[in-house]
Write a structure and sequence with these properties.
The chain is mainly alpha-helical. It is built from two helices and no strands. The protein has helices at about 10-15, 20-40. The radius of gyration is 13 Å and the shape is globular. The model has no long low-confidence stretch (mean pLDDT about 90). InterPro entries: PIF1_helicase (IPR051055).
């Protein structure tokens, strides 16, 4: 898996442009990634996201 790094200054405008639901999903995935980083036995991430254009 390729590691990518972004600074807080790069990420902040993107987070600020997200609505509340988008932020919830972002932080849910981020939390899973942090857990997975420290524990490879963490359950796989499974999400189903549906909606109109731009989902």
């Amino acid at each position: 898996m390729k590691q990518t790094y972004s600074t807080t200054n790069e990420i902040r405008p993107l987070l600020d442009s997200m609505n509340h639901e988008q932020q919830e999903i972002f932080y849910y995935v981020r939390e899973w990634c942090m857990k997975r980083l420290h524990n490879p036995d963490v359950e796989p991430l499974r999400l189903f996201i549906t909606g109109g254009a731009g989902t």
